Amino acid sequence: MLSAFFTLQRVFCRFCFYVYDYYEFLFKARFLLNMPGQKNW
Known about the structure:
There is one protein chain. The protein has one helix and no strands. The protein has about 40 residues and is mainly α. It is rod-shaped.
């Protein structure tokens, strides 16, 4: 039972890491896409 809990926790941490990496990628992509439009000041 305890090993199953640790396995579930490991899967959950990996899922959270993937979600964080995905949102970081979206933020960087949006920043890079908005950069050419912000250089006309």
